[in-house]
Write a structure and sequence with these properties.
single chain; mainly alpha; Non-ribosomal Peptide Synthetase Peptidyl Carrier Protein, Chain A; globular
Length: 78
């Protein structure tokens, strides 16, 4: 499974979304991506990629697209 597939699957599984909804997805744009959903998302990504994100990155993780930029810091290219 590619890194993009892993990344997408965390969003799709956690938030029960379709692939076509991801590109424009932003924090709090859907009911499930609230503060609790955000921490579940971060935990899912950390587990999927075997990383530990820094607090600033967790706070800055404001959209599907921004998440791709943040993961580059951890050598994950989506």
């Amino acid at each position: 499974m590619s890194d993009k597939e892993k990344y997408d699957n965390v969003f799709i599984d956690l938030f029960e979304l379709k692939q076509e909804q991801l590109d424009t997805l932003e924090y709090q744009a859907i009911v499930n991506w609230d503060s609790v959903g955000h921490m579940s998302l971060i935990a899912g990504l950390e587990e999927a990629f075997n990383i530990m994100m820094e607090t600033d990155d967790i706070i800055d993780f404001s959209s599907y697209q921004k998440g791709k930029e943040i993961l580059l810091k951890y050598n994950i290219k989506i």
